[in-house]
Design brief:
149 residues, mainly beta, 4-stranded antiparallel sheet, 1 helix, elongated
Length: 149
C-alpha cells in the first residue's frame, strides 16, 4: 500500500494505523515491525531526501468514494529523524557455550558493538570481556560468543 524507494532500496509497509485523517492531511503511524524493518535499511528514512513515499490508489478514498491518485511524494512535507535512545531490554548468558544474547528496544548496527565495553560483576569485583565475536547481523537481538584470549 505505501512503500518507500531510495537508492535501490524499497520497503512496503505491512501494518500501522491511521492516526489522523483530517482533510487534507493523513497521518500514518508505522507498526513496530515496519519501523524496525525500515531502520535496518540504511538508505531509507535517514533524512528528508531519503524519505521518498510511493502509494497506490488503495491508500484512501474521498467522501464520495473516489480513490486517491497514485503518487510519489519526494521529499515529504515533514520529516523527523529517529531520536529514540537505544535501550537494552533483556540479556541471557550461557556459561557453557560462552554466548551472550542481548535484546534491544530497536535495531542495532552490529558493527557498532564493542565487546571490550562489556563487563561482568558479582557486586564486589568485575571482569571485562576482552575477546569475542558478533554472530548476528543488524537487528534487535545480538548474539556474542566470547573467546579465550
Amino acid at each position: 500500500l505505501v512503500s518507500s524507494v531510495f537508492g535501490g532500496s524499497k520497503y512496503t509497509l505491512t501494518g500501522g494505523i491511521v492516526a489522523s485523517a483530517t482533510a487534507p492531511v493523513l497521518q500514518l503511524v508505522f507498526s513496530k515491525s515496519d519501523l524496525d524493518a525500515v531502520k535496518l535499511i540504511s538508505t531509507l528514512f535517514v533524512s528528508n531526501t531519503t524519505a521518498v513515499l510511493n502509494f497506490t490508489s488503495a491508500l484512501a478514498t474521498d467522501v464520495a468514494g473516489n480513490p486517491v491518485a497514485p503518487a510519489v511524494v519526494s521529499p515529504p512535507t515533514a520529516f523527523t529523524r529517529c531520536s529514540t535512545a537505544l535501550a537494552l531490554v533483556s540479556s541471557a548468558l550461557n556459561m557453557t557455550s560462552g554466548e551472550l544474547l542481548l535484546s534491544f528496544s530497536e535495531p542495532v548496527n552490529a558493527s557498532s558493538i564493542s565487546v571490550p565495553a562489556i563487563s561482568f560483576s558479582n557486586g564486589s569485583s568485575s571482569v571485562s570481556a576482552s575477546a569475542g565475536w558478533i554472530t548476528t547481523t543488524n537487528g534487535n537481538v545480538q548474539r556474542i560468543v566470547f573467546t579465550a584470549n
